[in-house]
Design goal:
The complex is a heterodimer of chains A (133) and B (475). Chain A is mainly alpha-helical. Chain A folds into three domains: 8-41; 47-86, no CATH class; 89-133, no CATH class. Chain A is built from four helices and two strands; from the N terminus they run αβααβα. Chain A is elongated. Chain B has 475 residues and is mainly alpha-helical. In chain B, helix 5 (60-87) packs across helix 18, helix 6 (94-101) runs antiparallel to helix 7 and helix 8 packs antiparallel against helix 17. Chain B has one domain (31-463): Amino acid/polyamine transporter I (Up-down Bundle), CATH 1.20.1740.10. The longest helix of chain B has 41 residues, at 413-453. The chains are: A mainly alpha (133), B mainly alpha (475). At the A-B interface, helix 1, helix 2, helix 3, strand 2 and helix 4 of A face helix 7, helix 14, helix 17, helix 18 and helix 19 of B. Chain B: InterPro entries: AA-permease/SLC12A_dom, APC_superfamily.
């Protein structure tokens, strides 16, 4: 038996503008501001040498020649060569991140399935036993 | 405008639900070559910039490993995507697929993944365009200062205008400039004489093993995705393709093959010319590689190759992001105002214009590695859901119950492999960019709450299912 179609409320133009601005605000607050305030981004360590040479920077003759063709001397290259990613991490932080990702997918799939049942019921008719409706 | 009542969508003859009302739609003008151009055009830029951050995260050898692992990941994506897309052919690509296969909240999230992935890729392209022009004018000794931000803004605005005017001209332009960009990579490869190792390419002196040890191989997988990210964008044009069942699998799979070849060439040339520390942070590595050969004509060719690749990519990204947003507006997942088609150009003009300010904001003030990471994360979330989606798809409609344009082999192996490689990539992003990963998750969680608790009340329930399929198993 087909379920009577759900009739959504009409959204005013003001409401549409507010919704569009909310999406923009979500992008700016959660993605842009953390980058702007340097709360997120690459975690790196920097090693500084007082008077670097190609040898002290671990560069052989071929490497040094390529750096120089690119317009670098040892002092300029030292900043790049001394910059390394910091891969130290806590297992707790990794577990928390995994929990957030897995939890997000689990809740999203379950919630989606609930909404999907309504879509199918309205589109094809609802022949599920009454207790499951 | 074209009518897209369900019988026009995929030619499926199965008994099904009642047709829905007529809806506005986009023009069907594209063939397999356009699909290839759209996919490769978006992605080819990944050979010109961004992939080399994988070298920075793990060293050259780790980047090669990541390149091939990511190639396997995208082969799975192309196989799964080709089956689903050739069966569910509607604007919005994976978004429309999630709507029919998983449910509304998942579809909303997929729509956002697409929009964010392509918008951040567009932003990255604009950043590289600005940096490239600044570097080129400096290297050529031109007098005066160039403000790269002006070129970033100009790139975004010009391409948005081009997309506003029409899809056929836009994608035909992509086809031409993609071919030129690909020719630039091949020319560079031939010029450095790879058959004579040690002459121009110095792998023996420049390859340094694994500076971060085994962990570096894992970490490099983060930017390894950049070699291919966006190939699934072919599906965004599903509603504008003349024969989706033929053109989408053909265009997508030949696109992956093209990129596998280009990725390997790119790695080989880049690591044979530059020390890994420089390569790992370069904004325009192939242009730098051309400079290192000492050939001025080649440097100019690679300048144009890089420029064309970034423009082709940004062009395709605007096309894809706006179509996903358009589809969401048409379905009321977003305000219906975005679901309008231009009466003359037949393009989703409001969706195109809406993202221009966001793209400009990020382009002029955000580092390249971070916009790339935002794009990669959005793509990664989409691939994770894609692996789950194909399993659900086969369970709800087993083979033989509906017409499929293409059936991918070895199911569920590609889905399992894809899920495993996605898990590896999450860990790779966590290493070094953990806070950005959590910021991205916060965005999608907040957006999901907004949709589930507020926005969904404006959505018609039954109208979301438009395919002429039988009722899914289990419902």
């Amino acid at each position: 038996m087909s379920r009577p179609p759900y009739e959504p409320p009409a959204q005013s133009l003001t409401g549409q503008i507010v919704d569009a601005l909310l999406v923009l605000a979500m992008v700016v607050v959660t993605l842009y501001l953390p980058l702007l305030l340097k709360l997120s981004g690459a975690g790196v360590t920097k090693a500084v040498q007082a008077a670097p040479t190609w040898e002290s920077l671990g560069q052989n003759a071929v490497m040094a020649a390529q750096w120089e063709k690119l317009g670098f001397d040892p002092a300029k290259a030292a900043e790049i060569i001394g910059s390394r990613f910091d891969y130290s991490f806590s297992w707790g932080a990794l577990a928390l991140t995994a929990l957030v990702i897995v939890g997000y997918f689990v809740v999203m799939l379950r919630w989606s399935d609930r909404e999907y049942r309504d879509v199918i019921a309205e589109r094809f008719g609802d022949d599920r036993p009454p207790r499951r409706r | 405008m074209t009518d897209i009542t369900p019988q026009n969508l995929a030619g499926v003859a199965a008994p099904a639900a009642e047709p829905v009302a007529r809806r506005v739609a986009l023009k069907r003008v594209l063939g397999p070559a356009h699909v290839w151009g759209l996919g490769v055009g978006i992605v080819l830029v990944g050979e010109f910039m961004g992939w080399n951050f994988a070298v920075g995260k793990g060293g050259a050898i780790a980047a090669l490993t990541a390149c091939w692992l990511a190639g396997i990941l995208y082969t799975c994506v192309a196989m799964i995507d080709s089956e689903i897309t050739s069966t569910v052919a509607a604007a919005g690509g994976q978004y429309a697929q999630a709507k029919h296969i998983i449910g509304p909240l998942a579809a909303f999230n997929v729509g956002l993944y697409l929009v964010m992935a392509y918008t951040m890729l567009e932003v990255s392209n604009a950043i590289v365009t600005g940096d490239l022009i600044e570097a080129f004018t400096h290297n050529m000794g031109l007098v005066g200062e160039v403000d790269k931000r002006a070129f970033m803004v100009l790139t975004i605005v010009f391409l948005a205008w081009l997309n506003y005017r029409g899809v056929l001209a836009t994608l035909t332009l992509n086809l031409v400039i993609t071919a030129i960009a690909f020719a630039a990579i091949v020319t560079l490869f031939l010029y450095v004489r790879p058959w004579a190792p040690g002459e121009t390419l110095k792998h023996g002196d420049l390859l340094t093993g694994l500076p971060y040890g085994g962990l570096g191989i894992l970490a490099a997988m983060h930017f390894g995705l950049w070699f291919y990210l966006g190939i699934e964008g072919t599906t965004q044009a599903a509603e504008e393709v003349r024969s989706p069942a033929r053109a989408l699998p053909l265009g997508t799979l030949t696109g992956v093959m093209t990129l596998l070849i280009a990725a390997t060439i790119t790695w080989y040339v880049g690591t044979g010319l530059m020390p890994w520390e420089y390569l790992g942070q370069a904004v325009t590595p192939l242009y730098d590689a051309a400079r290192l050969t000492g050939s001025a004509p080649l440097e100019v060719f690679l300048f144009f190759g890089t420029l064309f690749a970034t423009i082709a990519s940004a062009n395709g990204c605007i096309n894809d992001a706006s179509r996903a947003w358009f589809a969401m507006g048409r379905d009321r997942y977003m305000p219906v105002w975005f679901g309008a088609v231009h009466p003359r150009y037949h393009t989703p003009f409001r969706s195109i214009v809406f993202f221009v300010p966001i793209a400009i904001l990020f382009a002029v003030s955000t580092p390249l590695d971070q916009t790339i990471t935002l794009s990669i994360l959005s793509g990664l979330l989409g691939y994770t859901l894609m692996a789950l989606s194909v399993v659900i798809f086969r369970r709800k409609w087993p083979l033989g119950t509906i017409d499929r344009g293409y059936v991918h082999p070895l199911h569920p192996l590609p889905a399992i492999l894809l899920l495993a490689l996605c898990a590896v990539t999450y860990v790779a992003v966590f290493l070094g960019y953990g806070s950005q990963l959590l910021a991205m998750m916060a965005f999608f969680i907040v957006a999901s709450l907004w949709f589930a608790l507020h926005r969904y009340k404006y959505v018609r329930r039954g109208d979301q299912f438009t395919m002429r399929w039988p009722k899914p198993n289990g419902y």
